[in-house]
Amino acid sequence: MLKVAVLGHGTVGSGVYEVFEKNAAQIAHTVGEPVEVKYVLDLRAFPELHYADKFVTDFEIIEKDPEILAVAEVMGGVGAAYAFSKRCLRAGKSVCTSNKELVAAHGEELLAIAKEHNVNYLFEASVGGGIPLIRPMIQCLAANQLQEICGILNGTTNYILTEMIRNGVSFDDALAEAQRRGYAEKDPTADIEGHDACRKICILADLAFGDKIDPEQVSCEGITQITLEDVAAARRMGYAIKLVGRAKRTEAGKVYACVAPHLIPETNPLASVEGVFNGIQVTGDMVGEVMFYGRGAGKHATASAVVADMMDALLHREKRRPIEWGNGAQELLLPLDDLVSAWYVRGEVDDALARCKTEGAAITIPMTVAERNAKLPHAEGAMRVL
Amino acid sequence: MLKVAVLGHGTVGSGVYEVFEKNAAQIAHTVGEPVEVKYVLDLRAFPELHYADKFVTDFEIIEKDPEILAVAEVMGGVGAAYAFSKRCLRAGKSVCTSNKELVAAHGEELLAIAKEHNVNYLFEASVGGGIPLIRPMIQCLAANQLQEICGILNGTTNYILTEMIRNGVSFDDALAEAQRRGYAEKDPTADIEGHDACRKICILADLAFGDKIDPEQVSCEGITQITLEDVAAARRMGYAIKLVGRAKRTEAGKVYACVAPHLIPETNPLASVEGVFNGIQVTGDMVGEVMFYGRGAGKHATASAVVADMMDALLHREKRRPIEWGNGAQELLLPLDDLVSAWYVRGEVDDALARCKTEGAAITIPMTVAERNAKLPHAEGAMRVL
Known about the structure:
2 copies of one chain form a homodimer.
Chain A (H helix, E strand, L loop, with lengths): L1 E6 L3 H12 L1 H8 L3 E7 L13 E2 L2 H5 L4 E6 L6 H11 L3 E4 L2 H17 L4 E2 L11 H7 L5 E7 L2 H13 L3 H10 L8 H4 L2 H15 L9 E2 L7 H9 L2 E11 L5 E11 L11 E8 L3 E8 L3 H17 L25 E7 L13 E7 L1 H7 L3 E7 L1
Parallel strand pairs in A: 1-2, 1-4, 2-3, 4-5, 5-6, 8-10, 10-15
Antiparallel strand pairs in A: 7-9, 7-11, 9-10, 11-12, 13-14, 13-15
Helix pairs in contact in A: 1-12, 4-5, 5-10, 7-8
């Protein structure tokens, strides 16, 4: 019997326990022996649960128990989660997490500690919930030079945009409905301003390009400025407006990265990713474009990815996965303003360039931001066209 | 320097060599040391190539060279490829392949030999070309009970159907164009009759359900009977006709499997998989539906998946991947006729059931084949609705 622990009994944490319980037989078959959740760490008590006796409030019990081989860190945040993750890794326990904030901020340090102690730090669930993405990217596409990652990484904003596109619902009403359905937090800032997507694209860029891309330095724009008129104008021209995280390697090996609403041509499969779903396109020099699609959140979906990582860590106890990236010293990031794009604009635009003057137009001459400002000084609502 | 060999220098085989050459630095970084293709086995000579000195015609040279740790079997077929794969595994060399015919026919035997000799038999490239699919399914979704796999697994037939749907091109003209573009073989039988898709869905079902599903016993229907009228009728009703491979587990643990044209609702992302692209939906009890999408064929895409498997085999020399399935003794397969579906039919149908009498109608009452025959004795062109 292999023993593991779960740090945090929120939505994902309780999901992790339930996945271990519900699919115990299959997990035992794959791992080679049964796996037991020995402890659940939470400051709250859950006396009504049939596994109430598993709860502990003192992290040291887990840290000092040599039986515990792997830990699910599903607390979130960069405070206690950061400290406990380091202490678990140093105690020789693999850590598997859905905590995108922590991975984006301190992933390289945690991976280095994991390497030093010959254990795993795995975080498949930190991007795209249960959608297989990180492992396929670094293993199945390992023979490729990765060139670009472009993804709809946040289900909340994609739900809001889908409501605006499909049903003509205003941003405010769509946000209120998302909150009512539990897709958006009471304070929706991290979603609608793009911070959540920004952490995720940074994690993918770190993995793809081998050096830390700091979320604080990545241009990050949300969806609060998009109007129903923009959505309608885009649709007339054959595009869907989507909030995407992009990271693109130049031939010189530098990287452009951003989170921003983009006009996506309807022929691109990303344009068909609707509602709370996520879709992530990865371009490799050998494989071309591949896309991963599914629900990017949800209790059991996310939990199942954490549990799969734990199974992998248990199976590969002797041989850890060689995941690492640099500390940012390579300074890969280029200023986004220099990335040439076709642009969508509205307002006062020059007739010679655009199809229409005021309603919203896609201008297909690739331009930097400075060139766009020079050529279209009065244009408003600029968005890049993918 | 780690040494490998390539068996076969056709399209994929030459691609494997080129991927090793072009991305040598990255491959060395990931694997931990450089990897050299020491031999290429082919009966033909290629004196014009700069690696002409690598070619051998005698398989024993590879088999008896203890330096060779992994072999790419990219010969195809179940003759020499089968014999050589067994001999490589028995000689302690991992084998990585794109040979779907061999994996579908003898995968369980080759996996058992690999296990016995503590080496890997890997075949990511056998389904979906370069699209990450098999490894994500068995690793990232390992905490799920897999419930259904439904995929567009053959790019040739999807190209033909897309031409029929989008451009009103007849089946014969679309096939001729596919042949002209190199998407279809001179003898297109294996593609258009569904045999290629059948091997692929069987491999995925073997992996998902743990016991051999024999392609010879799976109901397999191609696309030659689909008319432009069917395509148009489906489209009017909001469906796209796609050739899918399906494998579905029942609650009792048995399996329905088939290859057949299906009507896919336009809201299902599989309906948006166009041209030569593949899309594979996998449903797990925890994660729900996820989809993998990309080009399902192509020299470098397929080769890059073979090379990624070889890198993985080299990295995990001490600890092989625990992939296996049974020899078919569980007899999982149920007769397809008992699978209830909504149906599309045309011809003489009852007004009370269908929207129209002759042009093609979707009948949404779930029925088995016998029930359909009893209720709609004169209907023609029956296809299941997904």
